[in-house]
Amino acid sequence: MTLPPPIDITKNPHLTGAFEPIQTEIAVDDLEVVQGAIPTDLSGTYLRNGPNPRFTPLGAYVYPMEGDGMIHAITLEDGKANYRNSYVRTPMLEVEEKAGHALWPSIMSGALPGPEDVGQDLAWTFRDMPSINVACHHGTLIALAETTKSYRISPLLATLDVEDFGGAFPQGAAAHPKIDPATGELITFTYNIEAPFLQWLVLNPDGTVKSGPNTVDTGNIAYMVHDFAITKTKIVLSLNPAVLDMAAVASGGSMLQWKPDLGSKIAVIPRSGQGPTIWHDGDPFWVWHFANAFDTQEGVEVQAVTWTNLGGGLAPGFAPPKAAFETITLNDRSSNIKRNSIAERPMEFPRIDDRLTGLPHRQVAVGARGTVDSLPTGAFDGVLTIDTQTGTETFYQSDGMSLGEPCFVPSPQSETDGYYVTFATKLSDMTSYFVVLASDDVSQEPIATVKIPQRVPMGLHGAWVPSGSIGS
Ligand SMILES: [Fe+2]
What we know:
Layout: E1 27-28, E2 33-36, E3 44-48, E4 70-77, E5 80-87, H1 91-99, H2 115-118, E6 133-137, E7 140-144, E8 150-153, E9 159-163, E10 178-179, E11 186-191, E12 198-203, E13 209-215, E14 229-230, E15 234-239, E16 242-244, H3 246-250, E17 256-258, E18 264-270, E19 278-282, E20 286-295, E21 299-308, E22 322-331, E23 338-344, E24 347-351, E25 363-368, E26 382-387, E27 393-397, E28 401-403, E29 407-410, E30 418-426, E31 432-438, E32 448-451, E33 462-466
Antiparallel strand pairs: 1-5, 2-32, 3-4, 3-33, 4-5, 6-7, 7-8, 8-9, 10-11, 11-12, 12-13, 14-15, 15-18, 16-17, 18-19, 20-21, 21-22, 22-23, 24-25, 25-26, 26-27, 28-30, 29-30, 30-31, 31-32
Bound molecules: fe (ii) ion.
Fe (ii) ion (FE2) binds at residues 132, 175-176, 226-227, 288-289, 460-461.
């Protein structure tokens, strides 16, 4: 087939500036702490994944859905920090490296490479893009994609093999699995352009299948579902009207269509598989990321960063898209979706203390916009914490940095407090840092700022993995 031409990366805000991909893979010990001090009781590794195309993309580049995965890892021990980074080496990346250029066109092109381009084994396959998140379960590090295959990673970031989720999701799972802190179970889902459109799965702590795949009735609609939430007893899947539409591709349109007439629907599903799914309906909104959910006497409470007015990006005259941190109340006896805004400003990537996944939580942290207006989507210049009981906001305004998702790291000295860590890049000189903030007051000067010996491009999601968690 004729491959589309390489794009002009200089015109893409997610391939330039703080987002510009790097090609170097390095490992450096004992990094320079340029401010503060690394807490000496922290022992573990912060890993962060993100799209980092090895070669100039062909035809288009859709952030945050495309690109090779590159994982950056900071290991803390005895107050010192080590750094290493590596591509997630998929078969597609290996074949492209042999060719010296990209071979898989953008997902938006609707085209796949043939045997003359990539050989018989990979001909007509979709590109694996485990570039969105990284998780640790059954003693294994897993690099996660949106809907393509997930890959197991070694502690030193070597790519091992495909993670098939106990054999139940060999095609891959969504990028935001949830691990129940009480049971050690991993709950995840996958969505597809054809039936079965949406399925969920529970893995035991040892990685074997406990339940599933279980199919959710989407009314034969191929919804795109990026994230979900769990409680102790329920699974919460929000079907927002971003729909995969092959008919639109056939007529020259985008595969992803926003269809607000469908409204938004939320399914509350018993994790046990016993009992009915309760559906709730409401006006259309979009969620990239949930912070958490928990059981209440009446049903379920969910917290998420929501987006409304999504038509604003498509048609003049509409209000621009608007982000809010919301509590979404789902009463078992009502089919309504009741949304209550707690905080409003450009924000994304909500995180909590993962030890409270599925349980009532109080604090949420997000990447949030402060004084720098010029950052592309997915980049922020501050970290905002929200007390979800009082609505109190506490904001860390960086000094001209571009930064991403804050990840909670528990303090061994406290059952509730800890740190938020993230990578940050100084926009004035493009130097990158690992920043440690105190979770009880992120507005203070960081606990530590550690210089990274190379620029770390803006990425997506990360995880804190305590020492001794891998390979058990
Ligand atoms: Fe995500």
